[in-house]
Specification:
Rossmann fold, five-stranded parallel β-sheet, disordered C terminus, globular, 7 strands
């Protein structure tokens, strides 16, 4: 399964390094040097994962997070910053960021974070593919349970077997 990653970074060298690393790992990589270009890309195609620099020439990563939070399906978003603060991290998390990395980036840490984001995308795709039964929006019901439990993969396995008792026990 291939995942698309949009890298929003104004520094060409950093953007290129992330692109090479993630392309070598099998991701389809898109690039945007500005907030405007990132929004244009998000308007034109579905993107699984977004890696966004916090400070961009034409805005903040938080502006992109606000925009992404209204998108369905919402991409997994990772914020990169050279000047992190607790307040920034809290706001980014409230807006839907799944992780926040500090510059200079550690390639192995970036790989791990993107891999975790890919796993969430894979699970979301599996949930979305589950059949709707008896007029119930089963993927939404399962998603809510998964979000509450923090054990998404277990919930997907239980959903496949049809043992809803176990789903309630997990929550």
């Amino acid at each position: 399964m291939t995942y698309s990653v949009l890298i929003v970074e104004d520094e060409a060298k950093a953007r290129g390094s992330m692109n090479r690393l993630l392309t070598a790992d099998g991701y389809e990589v898109l690039e945007a040097p500005t907030l405007a270009k990132a929004m244009e890309t998000l308007d034109s195609r579905l993107t699984d994962i977004v890696i966004c620099d916090f400070n961009l020439p034409d805005g903040h990563g938080l502006d992109l997070l606000r925009r992404i939070s209204a998108t369905r399906p919402r991409p997994q978003t990772i914020v990169v910053t050279g000047h992190g603060s607790v307040a920034t991290a809290v706001e980014a998390t409230h807006l839907g960021a799944v992780d926040m990395l500090e510059k200079p980036l550690d390639p192995e840490q970036l790989r791990r974070v993107v891999q975790r984001a890919s796993e969430v995308v894979r699970l979301q795709r599996e949930l979305d593919a589950l059949p709707h039964e008896h007029g119930i929006d089963r993927p939404r019901e399962i998603q809510t349970t998964a979000d509450r439990s923090g054990r998404r993969e277990h919930v997907v396995d239980v959903a496949r077997t049809g043992h809803t008792r176990d789903v309630r026990a997990v929550a």
